[in-house]
Write a structure and sequence with these properties.
heterodimer; A: 366 residues; alpha/beta; six-stranded parallel beta sheet; B: 700 residues; Rossmann fold; Dna Ligase, domain 1; six-stranded antiparallel beta sheet
Chain lengths: 366, 700
Amino acid sequence: MKKIVEGEILNKTIYIASIEELAGKSFVTIPLALKIMEKGRKVGYFKPIGSASLINSQGFPMDEDVEFIKKLLNLKEEDKIICPIVLSETDFLKNFIGKNLKEYEEKIYDSFKEISREKDVILMEGGRTLSTGAFINLCAPKLAKAFSSKFILIHQFKGDFLIDETVQARDYCLNWGLKPYGVILNKVPQEKIEFVNSVIKNFLNMHDLELLGVIPENSILNSLTVKEIYKKIDGKILAGEEGINNLVQTFLVGAMSVESSMKYFRKTINKLIITGGDRTDLILAALETKASGIILTGNLYPSIKVFPKADELKIPLILVPYDTFTTLQLLQKIIGKTKLIDEERIKIAKQIFEENVDWKRIIEDL
Amino acid sequence: MKLEAFFKPKAIAIIGASREPEKVGYRILKNLIEAGYKGRIYPINPQASEIMNLKCYKSILEVSEDVDLAVIAVPAKIVLQVAEECGKKGVKGLVVISAGFSEVGREGVSLEKQLVNICRKYGMKLQGPNCLGIINTRMNINASFASATPTLGTVAFISQSGALGSAILNWALENKVGFTSFISLGNEADLETADFLEALGEDEETKVIALYIEGVKNGRKFIKVAEEVSRRKPILALKAGVTEVGVKAVASHTGSLAGSETAFSEAFKKAGVIRVWSLEELFNLILAFEAQPIPKGDNVLIITNGGGPGILAADACEKNGLKLPPLEDAFVKILRENLPPHASFGNPLDVLGDADEERYLLAIQAALRSKKINALIVIVTPQAMTPAEKIAEVIVKIKTQYFEKPILTSFMGFKSDSNPLRILKENDIPNYHFPETAAYVLKAMYNYYLILNAPKEKPVKVTDLKYEDIKNIIGKAQQEARPVLTIDEAIEVAKASSIPTPKAAIARSIEETVHIASEIGYPLAMKIVSPEIIHKTDVGGVILNIKNSEEVKNAYEKIVRQSKLFMPQAKILGVLLQKMMPPGKEVIVGAVRDHVFGPLLMFGLGGIYVNFLKDVSYRLCPLTRLEAKEMIEETKAYILLKGVRGEKPADIDALIDVILKVSYLISEFEEIMEIEVNPLIVYEEKKGCIGLDVKVTVKI
């Protein structure tokens, strides 16, 4: 049986892991990869343990980051090489019953070997959290140690408790003999940036942790676009197609009178309004209050008289086959999971990354 | 006259005139010829050399004389080309009958825009497209494809529905109601309700204007025009789409949102428009308004030959707020001398079942000469010896002698083609099958009297509005894409409009809180300040009655903790410390911007029950002082404000001031979509009032 031996790896690796889910690993990985490529180096991407968030073109469950990053970095490896272990969202253990756990270590080793061919730098991305994979003895710090990676911890700013969580994460790494290279704090509210750069930074330093970057909260990066949403709810765009990149931060259901709905719609921005296709009055109210998009449930075609207005205001009208309840359930699954999968967002993310993360140091230290 | 090209054209071209009877272009030309139009008529059709004995032109450009009005009935796709030619020819008005514009969706919308652009380019006015046409009886013009030509009369009818218009024309013929004009608005791409209203307001022949509308394009313009016109002649409006189902139907029919029902009601009120709720009511009112004078008061005399119908009429008058005083003694004396002793000489005045035309004549004469009575309802039931025809003749005759008071009749149970009804109809005496209808109609007429005599006040201007301060606060919120202002910002806006609020300041830390609290003085209220927290109370973001520094500290920690617990994503900017105010009467003053009619002010009883009691009144801004006063008086809260069980009355003048300030503020700042001062505490007379919480939503 093959075993990963420390020092065997010649490529430089950077391991990006997060303390919590959805902290923004890709928001660091992608811009960093692009920066390294700009320096003329060949970049590989490896996600040893991913989540089965979609079915790939070969019909296998796959991590959606993989599909996208492969395209972005123009990688030739197969999905199952880039992400050899794919865990389904909740009940993954059943697939491991009776398996020889050592196989997985080998699988990761082999995949990495293949990826690392002709690459200068490999960016590795952790699973959901630091401990993901611990059940097969392959948690992020262990792998990072094995590949001699620079280990970067991403954490989302939610308040001062982040210090405790980060120190605990550091201890977890130290348990595996790994000293984290640094910490990047993501989604920091504008008014907290100063505080993070002074107070939080001092506390991190006190615990032997380097603050590599403070990424401010950005509403565009935090929002989904209509385009990202409508396909996931099997929607069909009837009008207002030009507004497909409108941002969505909230869903509102319109089922009341026009007057009540206007009051409610006006108080929210970047909203996707869900209403029945037969509620022409509410569709007009939603148009009036500049919704980002309007979802028409129950496959009910609206009056064609609203189409020109939707076109003019660039507000997509999306017809879906589901009732309001089902549509909302589907939407709940996607909200908050913004992905860096369009050019516009990548551009913004890259710019924010350049301005707020000490990327030069990360690259120079390689 | 405005829109002269439409009402008094010297020459009309029918573009798309046709020889085929099933074509619209045939019908229009036929209607125009048959109506007896005296001006020049030019049929335009490239395929014909002559239609209905008139020379036909290939294009309007071939016509050598001037043409004022062109009626276009060609397929939508060639309308633009034809309109362009009309422009070149120097035509002043277009009536586009053709359908296939904004009512059919995308391509139609773009076609309609291009059509409007062509009209603007050449300075032409446009009626329609997608309309039935225009009729002006005085000029013998029927440039429509309606199936009937109305007779000459004094009513003008403007309709947003062509089909309904057509039906009304037939009804009018049947009921001998004559028209000055009939206008089918169509899509109102250019000329809208208000434009025709304005023109007809100036038309001396038109005595009554009736409207059928589903919505108006420009609410402010409608009110402004209608306000002026209604002082000269009554405007009767039937607005469709009142219920939620109706609103949905209108939205689908027109593809646009009408103003809210409340806003429409207030708009009609402000503009002096008499609103009716059904076609039947509209017809009933037209009958009376076109033929009868407006009563100069609300005292009605009911004359009847049957007890039951008289009582029904009396009930209906009472319900409609009309008064039924008895005649003066002198008249009663005359009647007693001439009528059987068991007749009833009060009001209703019962002339008994065997009454002949003489008895009716005496009673009617008395009422017409009485100084007390302003209007009459004459009820005639068909009893064995009732000379109904003669009674009708008597009424007609006496009406020619006394024409200052309205007489409405209710000849009950007569066939519509019977002689008595025919006589009444031909002589402009409105007859209603049931006396209740007559009572309702009189009430509407009396309302118009009140409209005519309403004091003309100007909206109140607030002189000490701090424009710059308000603009800055709104600008900042807009820049940060926050539709709802934070409490401190909202209070600043109120202050800048000199709406009284308690002493308050923001604190951002526990130490600052203690310090500011001692400056303001106890007891205090503490409110969370966060752009994300709109409903502060729901997240435990409001703590009242804080009495000392210890409580202030606890409150600060509690409020921040609670807010974070309920809304972890919310940015907490601090807390607002506000001086607690002594109790008083709680009311609400708020305003919402209606997208058609602009800001709509709301006043009502405050506190937590407001949503259930719905004790609220509305007015469209900007308000006059009288309107502010009336809206308070309309609510039940007014009874409480006046003081009950020995309480001193509240400071209603101060309350009126706040209403006027809110009205002026939202009228001056288009960016403000909603504002609410709730609760507003009103103290005893001369002690003022104070707004404890203010909410402001701005346009993003």
